[in-house]
Amino acid sequence: MQDELGELLSKLSDAQKELIILTAKTNAFPDNNTLRKIATLSLNISAVEALIADTQNRAKRAKMTKAND
Question: Around 16, how many Cα atoms within 13 Å sit in the side-chain half-sphere?
Fold first, then answer.
């Protein structure tokens, strides 16, 4: 599960970076659609990061509980 989440996080981050770089290369202010895509990717990145952290915390708690039994 962690590997799949890590891969998804990498893909989302790469997509966002590409959009930001392309936007930076233009001299014009980015259109609303581009800004929306960047923001949506940011929200999705945050959600995946939170899920990764939650999964790691659950695994740590499970190990601690098992060690205490």
Answer: 16
Q: What stretches of the chain adopt beta strand conformation (E)? A: none
CB atoms within 10 A of CB 58: 10
User: What Å distances lie between residue 14 and 28, 29, 40, 44, 57, CA to CA?
Assistant: 22, 21, 14, 12, 26
Q: Which two tokens stand for residue 50?
A: 């939170």
Instruction: Determine the Cα–Cα distance for residues 19 and 38; give it in Å rounded to an integer.
Output: 7
**pLDDT tens sequence across 1-18:** 889 999 999 999 999 999
pTM score of the predicted model? 0.84
Q: Go through the chain and tell me how many residues it has.
A: 69
Distance CA 67, CA 69 (A): 6
Q: Structural domain boundaries of the chain?
A: 2-68
